[in-house]
Amino acid sequence: MRHIPEHILNKHITEIREQGFTILDSILTIAESEELRNICIKKYDKYKKKHSQSVKEKKFHGSGVKMLYNLHNKHERFLDLIFHANILYIANILLR
Fold first, then answer.
1. Any alpha helices (H) in the chain, and if so which ranges?
2. Which letter, b or e, does each residue of 5-25 get, where b requires 16 or more Cβ atoms within 10 Å of its Cβ?
3. Which of 52, 83, 84, 87 is exposed most, by the fewest CB atoms within 10 A?
4. Tens digits of residue pLDDT in 29-48
5. Is the overall model pTM greater than 0.85, yes or no?
6. Which H helix or E strand runs over 28?
7. How far is residue 30 from each of residues 34, 36, 39, 82, measured CA to CA in Å?
8. Which of 82, 74, 73 is nearest to 44 (CA)?
9. Which residues contact 1 (CB under 8 A, 6 or more apart)?
């Protein structure tokens, strides 16, 4: 993951406080994006039968929606997103 300068992260913190969310644009390299996408495809294929039979999910998401829950529990690469220095910096500021 790319490092984002502190002054830009601070702008993202302001957005979270004002809007409730922010988008860290271009934080992943193309290779990282492709790797995570491929993991999602494989994990979706593994879990789709279980989730596609859930009436509750069909009601909430509608039919034909591809959904994969708890990515951080599906593959360790998603933990890298959570524990990246940029994310931890933002969390540290917001949780003070």
1. 6-19, 30-52, 55-61, 71-74, 77-82, 85-94
2. eeeebeebeeeeeeeeebebe
3. 83
4. 999 999 999 999 998 888 87
5. no
6. none
7. 6, 10, 14, 18
8. 74
9. 27, 28, 29, 32, 80, 81, 84, 86
